[in-house]
Fold this protein.
Amino acid sequence: MTQPITRQRKAVSLISGGLDSMLATRAMLDQGIHVEGINFYTGFCVEGHTHAIRKKDKAKPKRNNALWVAEQLGIKLHIVDIIDEYKDVVINPKHGYGSNMNPCLDCKCFMVRKAHEWIEEHGFDFIITGEVVGQRPMSQRRDTMPVIQRESGAEDRLLRPLCAKILPATLPEREGWVDREKLFNFNGRGRKPQIALAEKMGIVDFAQPSGGCCFLTDAAYSSKLADLWSARGERRYELDDIMLLKVGRHLRPRPHFKIIVGREEGENRFLEGYRKQFTHMYTTSHSGPLVLLDGEANADDLQLAARLTARFSQGKMADTVRVELHEKGADKRELDVVPLTNEEIPVEWYL
Amino acid sequence: MSHHQLDARRMLCPMPVIRTQNFVVKLPPGDTVDVLCTDPGALHDIPAWCRIHGHEIINTQEQQDGELTITVRVGADSS
């Protein structure tokens, strides 16, 4: 009697670059599933490279953790640009925000939905994530797990190997594509089970981002995004806006304009790429930062911005500092200004 | 076999990798692409992406102004 030919089942794994998705993927590979990774780039992702803009961080490894994890696991990784589609998730989250501007539940529903579209397009059988019941206060709770399945459209083709045993059996388990008994029952915020499993699997090097993998969970970043929307009078953004929120010192001296001050050479170099789009200035009598001006500025505003630019230069104690001003749509000109003192800069100006 | 050029300058990673991925997937094996970038992270990420997808880095050049050219040869399975 011949055995029926069973085809190897295929899963796509949401790879963040952290430990949990790495473990979940490895658990599937160990069960003989063909796994490929998918990683979504929203524009808000905390990348080593964003930090690498700053010269002082150059010693840090510049690896992309999702790519690194994929290479360690020996799987392909598909990185998907969802910058434009993601705007609606950030601007209109159906389930609201977390403690900052983080729409974690809507985000997870969106990403699983995109993964579901991907498996349908590529002939894969199911989706896996590194989610653990109770691990995150907004998106990884017992009551939100079925919400993600339902709203993403993935339904029971979404398997969470790390906590599958405490959830209803999904299609891959019921059909015997994976052995439910070999899955896990992790629960809660603790990390010990994951660390122990990593050790058992021989995984010794992994990323543990302390602040999560998204800038929207960061209070300072969220505050700058809220300021951007407030100043514009509408909730919208472009990629350049959210990239610039990651870089430099931001001060809003007047409601109608703000300045972005490079904090060191790496940031100045990055900001240089935006010179054509923004009114910008820098000191010529002393070394100092490149400063971009975002908004509309009249002559008094430009004078104020120049005095701030001088304040953040090596000439901050000088009587006068020369600032070269490149106003958008005008010829460059020079201003001799008195640097503002610390006392003249209200703390509220700092975003 | 054709040679191509892809401009990913002024983009921060992972955008240069995404652009490379989306470009290479349309090419036949053996074609080569010069990827121009300015983010030093691309020096790590594009080779990593190539290794896991079976492509080959055949040259890397860094100019004094920091501009990078990473030359990729498309492998047999570009999916």
About this structure: The first helix of chain B runs from residue 15 to 24. The two ends of chain B are 18 Å apart (CA to CA).
